[in-house]
Amino acid sequence: MMRRGVPKQDIFFVTAKDGARIACASSGRGPTIVRAAHWLTHISRDLDSPVWQHWLAELTGFGRLVRYDLRGCGLSSRNISEISFEAWLSDLEAVTEAIDEPFTLIGMSQGAALSIAYALRHPDKVERLVLIGGYARGLLARDTSDRARLEAATLTNLMRLGWGRDDTAFNQVFTHLFIPDGTLAQHKWWRSLEQDTASADIAARTMETLHRIDVLNLAAQLKVPTLVLHANGDARVPFAQGRELAMTIPDAKFVPLDSNNHVLLDTEPAWNVLLSSLQDFLGTSADLAVSDTDFGLTTAEEQVLTLVAKGLSNSEIAELLDKSEKTVRNQVSSLFDKVGVHTRSELIVRVLSAQTGQTP
Questions:
Q1: Are 192 and 41 in contact (CB under 8 A)?
Q2: Domain 9-142+214-281 indexed as CATH 3.40.640.10
Q3: CATH topology classification for 290-356
Q4: Residues of the chain with CATH 1.10.10.10
Q5: Which SS3 state, helix, strand or coil, does residue 262 take?
Q6: Cα separation of 101 and 95, whole Å?
Q7: What is the pLDDT along the chain (360 residues), one digit of tens a residue?
Q8: Dihedral sign, CA of 342, 347, 349, 352?
């Protein structure tokens, strides 16, 4: 999939109940999408990240993306006395307090549990819920065995000893839990992010909190359209946890992803599956009356645009239209240029807006 970058972002701060300052970023235009905080992010670095950049490029194509750094991490307050699930939930409430219209809430990894708790507490604010690589119960909440307790304690202690240090065995293992199929450059960037985003103490205290998360009973009470996606080879959060979420949340749609990565990379087929699923779920995959727009598209480009809107990949479009994949790739690039966008999701939003006469 072709990618050129992401829109500029506006960084701002909100104040949590205990006085902690939470760093937020807003980018893109259109319907609001909020991403609940999770590891490992740093809003001032993510735009240039070889791991997160493609996520931001595509998500901002669906609307205005609001995201923020966890307390104690990134640009948020570093000197934090309380790290708890309730504090994280309070921070999310502070971030969304000024958002008036219902929004889509995306929860990745630990953000899934936060999103579930928030959606149940604020049903009037959450229009749709997307949970990616998430879980309802942390390690010690789902497994009380001696082995689980030893695993949790070992990982936490290793964090206190090895977090943020160069070329330690811990850093290599921790990175492989998130992006085992990443390139050397992506692994190096991820390890450097540890140093920049949090101290060893904050990391260990955060991990201790993650182990005890339990929102399974809350998930069963949800009454909001929910999409659950999970990689079948995820080493950080077992696939069974995503399946449990989908089985527990009433009427949730479940999409397995063929990947070993906890954070999907844009070079793997699963990334296109995720984007297609988002397009369907967020309502951007409807048929487009492309001939009614004034972008100067050729008939061939209109055909390609219609299939892009249905969530088809370049190879699928090529097979359907009996073209080479290179030809389709060039036509998609031409669509980006004519419509003035950078991503497939932006393309669909812009054309839909042109049809209705609205500004995206």
A1: no
A2: no
A3: Arc Repressor Mutant, subunit A (1.10.10)
A4: 290-356
A5: coil
A6: 14
A7: 334 456 689 999 999 999 999 999 999 878 899 999 998 899 999 988 999 999 998 898 888 899 999 999 999 999 999 999 999 999 999 999 999 889 999 999 999 999 999 999 999 999 999 999 999 999 999 999 999 999 999 989 988 888 877 767 777 888 888 999 999 999 989 988 888 899 999 999 999 999 999 999 999 999 999 999 999 999 999 999 999 999 999 999 999 999 999 999 999 999 989 998 998 898 754 445 555 556 888 888 888 888 887 667 788 888 888 889 899 999 999 999 988 888 877 787 777 666 545 444
A8: positive
Q: Which two three-digit tokens encode residue 267? A: 């070079």
Report how far residue 243's alpha carbon sits from residue 61's, in angstroms, rounded to the nearest whole number.
Answer: 28
Contacts of 14 (CB under 8 A, 6+ apart): 21, 22, 24, 68, 94, 95, 97, 98
pTM beyond cutoff 0.70: yes
